[in-house]
Amino acid sequence: MKTTYSRREALRVAALGIIGGGGATTQAQAQEPDAMKTPVADPKAIKTRVASCNCGQLSVTCTGPDPDRVVMCNCFLCQKQTGSPFSLQARFPNEQVKIEGKSTAWKFPIEGAGRTKYRTCAGSDGLKTDSAADLVTSHFCPVCGSTVYYYRKSDPARTGVKVGAFADPTFPPPMGSGFEEYAHPWTKKLADLPMPLGHGK
Fold it and tell me: Which residues form a coiled coil (predicted)?
């Protein structure tokens, strides 16, 4: 007997794969048909991925294996920078990265500014001290404003790239999520959201 799966069930399986199911096998995962399974590519295979801003003026070409660090962050710094409840970023060795186009740099912590009222993934604890353990320099397009890549003082050998700038659903999922205390609760229950918007193919 052939089992049919609704779009909602398919999305539930995909969401569980992205945000994690705590290691437990759910009924939806157990019943996932072979046709819905995404082939697992060799993470060490050489790939060329291109991230860019919305207008295309600023781009980052990454050539090499999949990044070993892909992270989802919920801190308020990332929320404010992306205009979204969380951000996804990947870090690539500098020698695998080619940057083209003009960018405007923005540094955090801001020199001379007072402490933030929240902790950040930049390594600063604005709740207790003005000092920062790290310095993050983000680069965005001066034309359309999209943030595409960044550098961390604590990790000079790698370039961070905003995963959304790749606009590639096959990009590896995050290895984990941080700053959960700042997360919007609904982001942990994506599979429970109604999906009536009809933006499919």
Answer: none
Maximum C-alpha span of the chain: 68
Q: Please answer whether residues 107 and 135 qualify as being in contact, where contact means their C-beta atoms are separated by less than 8 angstroms.
A: yes
27 versus 164: which is more confidently predicted?
A: 164
What are the strands, taking DSSP E only, across the chain? 47-52, 59-64, 69-73, 87-93, 97-100, 104-108, 136-140, 147-152, 158-162, 176-178
Residues sharing a CB contact under 8 Å with residue 174, sequence separation 6 or more, in sequence order: 18, 70, 71, 72, 88
In the numeric block, the tokens 């001379």 are attached to 112
| Terminal CA-CA length for the chain | 27
Distance (Å, rounded) from C-alpha 48 to C-alpha 85? 28
Residues 96 and 49 in one domain: yes
95 lies in some domain: yes
Transcribe 180-191 into DSSP letters: GGGS-GGGGGGG
In this structure, what are the phi and psi dihedrals at residue 180, rounded to the nearest 5 degrees?
Answer: -60, -25
Q: Looking at the structure, do residues 30 and 114 belong to the same domain, yes or no?
A: no
Same domain, 16 and 67: no
